[in-house]
Amino acid sequence: MTLFDIRVGEHESAAALLRALPEAQNGEDVGQHRRADGTKLCVVVYSRILNFGNREARLAAIHDVTERMLIESDLRRTKMFLDTVIDNVPLPIVVKTVKDSRFVLINKASEEMHGRPREWTIGKTLFDMFPKERADIIKAQDAECFVSEQPVIISDHTIPTPKGDRIVVSKKVAIRGQDGKLEYLLTLLDDVTERRQAEQRITHMAHSDALTDLPNRAAFSERLSAILKLAQAERRSFAILCMDLDSFKEVNDIYGHAVGDTLLCMVADRLRSIGGDIYIARLGGDEFTIIAENGERSSIGRLTDRLLAAFADDFEIEGHRLVQDLSIGVAIYPAHGTDDKTLMKNADAALYHAKSQDSGSVQYFEAEMDARSRERNALKVDLDFAIARNEIQLHYQPQLKMTGETTGFEALARWHSPKRGMVSPAEFIPLAEESSLILVLAERVLREACREAAS
After folding, report:
1. HEC-encoded secondary structure of 319-367
2. What is this structure's pTM?
3. Of residues 233 and 34, which shows the higher confidence score?
């Protein structure tokens, strides 16, 4: 048969093929052959011209590579699929050789993080990419992975990028070849910069006063506990200073809470300006607290002098000049207490005593203050019960004109306690004003006075 007999219907294309054939074919190209039943095969042809029976002839060896081409096509599709998947993984992926730490694969996310195209990176070593000090650190981390049967996680560490330093967590996995020997090292990078910043913001919010940005009560308690343990271990003293403003309530009542809030922020700024080895916190309202790590009286004296001097100047807010003095109560570890609750209670007792003195007073805790503090707390408890049991009575004092005409009556709260007898208003009214009891007491007094006036 002739070639044209075999390739029925392809006379022109077969003739063109014969004319174009080189003297020798080396199987470099893959062509197609159609069988009699119409199916097509992928073939590779090896041929050469020779003399056969004194006639020019061509010897051809045709190799059916259909199955091989299918396998290669599947492999190409699989590789394309895997390359596409790896390239679109949102986390940066880097693969290096174990032998010489050369980069052989990076994905798109890694390109974006490092700010370099993969063509620039592939084939380079760690020492081509990073300064020697940094490269040595990475190489040591890689070596740790080579001796581990499990993935190695490198916690938060910083890497430089075009966007600035980024905090990342690295997960490294050693990959073995078919012979079981270590061949590649895969590193997965998780950029946790924003996450850590968010965590820091949340932690800051949980431990900071929203108005003044000073540490809050929770942060103060943690710091006090830590300082207490350190002082116990090193057998040294420290001091707690409780402070509040002598006229803050009047500022809120007269100028409003917006001015009061501004004043508190300015107070916080002045306290920060004091400097020294101190820890300042706002516990609430106009109550500020300082931990001074030097508990010597001379050092505390210099600190309180600086505090009082910082409040010598008036505060200017919205055109108002406000005079604010600072009262300070001091308790020293271990002389005035060996645990945090006792120290705070005694510092607060010293502050209460300072507020009963002249404005801008400093008072160190004394033993008799504890008795007064316990009595004050007991009186507060009794007052709470007295209000609930209607023990507060109203006495009325007439208000007269010069002519003697009665124009009204002033309602005066009087407390006759079954346990204490008559308790002076000078004792229980200030105590009520320092707590929420004044609100309950005022409402009871007002309702009773109105009821009696209406009757």
Report:
1. CEEECCCEEEEEEEECCCCCCHHHHHHHHHHHHHHHHCCCCCCEEECCH
2. 0.59
3. 233
In 10 A of CB 409, how many CB atoms?
15
HSE value, Cβ hemisphere, 13 Å, CA-based, for 116: 14
Q: For the packed helices 367-388 and 340-355, what is the interaxial angle rounded to 10 degrees?
A: 80
pLDDT per residue over 322-380, tens digit each? Answer: 988 899 999 999 999 999 999 999 998 899 888 878 888 899 988 776 667 777 788 88
**What tokens appear for 431 in the block?**
């105590």
> Which residues, in sequence order, are CB contacts of 352 under 8 Å at separation 6+?
329, 369, 372, 373, 376
**∠ CA 220-336-228 to the nearest 5 degrees?**
40
Q: Is the peptide bond before 334 cis (omega within 30 degrees of 0)?
A: yes
Number of residues in the chain: 455
Say how many C-beta atoms besides its own lie within 10 A of residue 303's C-beta: 23
Cβ 175 vs Cβ 186: under 8 Å: yes
**β partners of residue 46:** 26, 61
Which residue do the tokens 């403003």 mark? 245
What is the per-residue pLDDT across 409-441, written as a single tens digit (0 to 9) for each? 999 999 988 888 888 888 888 888 877 788 889
- In order of their start, the domains of the chain are 3-70 (no CATH), 89-195 (3.30.450.20), 211-365 (3.30.70.270), 379-454 (no CATH)
What span, in angstroms and rounded, lies between the C-alpha atoms of 400 and 362? 44
Residues 6 or more apart in contact with residue 445 via CB below 8 angstroms: 392, 394, 411, 413
Q: HSE-up of 233 (CA within 13 Å, CB side)?
A: 6
Lookup: tokens for 22: 């080189």
Of the candidates 286, 294, 292, the residue with the CA atom closest to the CA atom of residue 224: 292
Mean predicted confidence (pLDDT) in 174-202: 88
What single-letter DSSP state applies at residue 314?
A: P
